[in-house]
Specification:
Blueprint: H1 4-11, H2 16-28, H3 42-54, E1 58-65, E2 68-76, E3 83-89, E4 109-111, E5 114-116, H4 120-140, E6 147-153, H5 161-168, E7 177-181, E8 188-192, E9 194-203, E10 207-208, H6 219-237, E11 249-256, E12 267-268, E13 271-280, H7 286-315, E14 324-333, E15 336-337, H8 343-356, E16 362-365, H9 370-378, E17 382-385, E18 399-401, H10 402-420
Parallel strand pairs: 3-6, 3-7, 7-17, 8-16
Antiparallel strand pairs: 1-2, 2-6, 4-5, 5-18, 8-15, 9-13, 9-14, 10-12, 11-13
Helix pairs in contact: 1-10, 2-4, 4-10, 5-9, 6-7, 8-10
Bound molecules: zinc ion (ZN).
Length: about 425
């Protein structure tokens, strides 16, 4: 058991003003990855690194790609094999049309209990909370057994090159558990949906709309692929809903015919493209789904070829090309599930209860995060938690509740205390 005295010693060192200032400073730095506009994660990463250096942490910057560094902040708190990682990303998504915002996207304006701006919610507020939690633990002088590692990583919003580089450099080798600092509205999330993205490319033959028999329309194949995806979804859904993650989905998101160039009413498109965004539950197998998609592509290709062959025979047409269908898997990110008995989940549970006085609530993450790679590549137990309404990321007038943000810094600090706490040292 962690004593009340130790917990209070840590909590009194969490400084709300320091947290709100740091959040505001990070939000004011536009860290959208946009080479054309000249913005990247560089300035935000440098700011976080300098902040941590001033507080006496061991800080290391590594360039993942030009203008895109990772910052690795280490607090070797005491002897012990455990190493708890806090992970937060420096990149934010574009604010979109500034006219859609009531507040300045990079103004970090405070109104009432909220701070507004791109990244307040996803996830600079939580990034500041993890850094302030580390600073509080360090200041408190409370004995800990092990290491706290702050991973301030780039490119979470796109290809996640930051966390992949972090793992490839060997930094994850010593990490025994991780807290992924993302907006989950105070929920302790122990599972995440998986993602599979697929592209179906259909090739027929372009022709004049008045002479369809001179070409080969891709539309019958497109229709069958969409119907096939829905059938796969219905089969997956019949296995039931996940308590925290909800339903699996097989969604055709982009349907293009022609696959490129302008669409014209009197031109039969020779090529079509369908993108499918498939979100999975831990009980589903990704290799099995990939095999099902392959079978769907083959069945559609064969079925449409047969259909055209029979039709051409009926009409006495000869010499049309055979339809061609190709399938590519663009992304394969697995589901994650951390067992509730893992010490990091126990720590998050205790910390949430202690910091908020409430019974913790559990949830699941609908999308992939940097934690996906830590779990999938290194089997590191992860929990995802942080301040911020879960629907607000990537919207205009993004905001975070400052009271919840302060509570989050306390939860992070107590999670580390419980995970690395050394009751014998009191
Ligand atoms: Zn995020």
């Amino acid at each position: 058991m962690i004593s009340a005295k130790m917990a209070d010693a840590v909590l009194t060192c969490v400084d709300p003003d320091e947290l709100i200032r740091l959040t505001g400073s990070l939000v004011k730095i536009n860290s959208v990855w946009d080479p054309a506009a000249g913005t990247s994660e560089q300035a935000a990463a440098e700011f976080a690194a300098a902040w941590a250096e001033r507080r006496g942490f061991d800080v290391r910057m590594e360039t993942v790609a030009p203008g895109r560094p990772n910052v690795i902040i280490t607090h070797a708190a005491g002897p012990g094999p455990r190493c708890l990682m806090f992970e937060g990303h420096t990149d934010v998504v574009t604010p979109g049309d500034p006219a859609a915002w009531t507040y300045s996207p990079f103004g970090a304006e405070i109104a009432g209990n909220r701070m507004y701006g791109r990244g307040t919610n996803d996830t600079k507020g939580n990034l500041a909370a993890m850094l302030c939690a580390m600073a509080a633990l360090k200041r408190s002088g409370v004995p800990l057994a092990g290491t706290i590692l702050g991973g301030v990583l780039c490119d979470e919003e796109d290809q996640m090159i930051g966390v992949r580089h972090f793992i490839e450099q060997g930094h994850a080798d010593r990490v025994t558990a991780a807290v992924i600092c993302e907006p989950q509205d105070g929920l302790i999330c122990t599972s995440q949906k998986g993602a599979l993205r697929a592209r179906f490319s259909v090739r027929g033959k372009m022709s004049h709309g008045a002479m369809p028999l001179a070409g080969l329309n891709t539309a019958p194949a497109v229709a069958r692929i969409i119907a096939g995806l829905h059938a796969l979804e219905e089969a997956a859904v019949s296995c039931g809903r996940d308590e925290h993650l909800g339903w699996p989905s097989f969604t055709p998101t982009v349907i293009q015919a022609p696959a490129g160039g302008p669409a014209q009413l009197n031109v039969i498109p020779g090529e079509a493209r369908i993108l499918a965004d498939i979100r999975t539950l831990p009980r589903q197998s990704h290799p099995a789904i990939v095999a099902e998609l392959g079978r769907l592509a083959e069945a559609v290709e064969d079925g449409v070829r047969d259909h055209y062959r029979d039709y051409d025979r009926r009409l006495g047409i000869a010499g049309r090309p055979a339809l061609d269908l190709a399938l590519e898997i663009l992304t394969d990110r697995p589901c994650t599930r951390t067992d509730p008995s893992e010490p990091v989940v126990q720590a998050a549970h205790w910390a949430t209860q202690r910091a908020t006085g409430r019974q913790p609530l559990y949830g699941g993450v609908p999308g992939a995060t940097d934690g996906t790679f830590l779990w999938a590549w290194k089997r590191i137990p992860i929990v995802t938690m942080g301040a911020g309404d879960r629907e607000v990321p990537h919207q205009a007038d993004e905001w975070v509740d400052l009271g919840q943000l302060v509570e989050t810094a306390k939860i992070y600090a107590l999670t580390a205390l419980h995970y690395l706490g050394d009751p014998a040292a009191e």
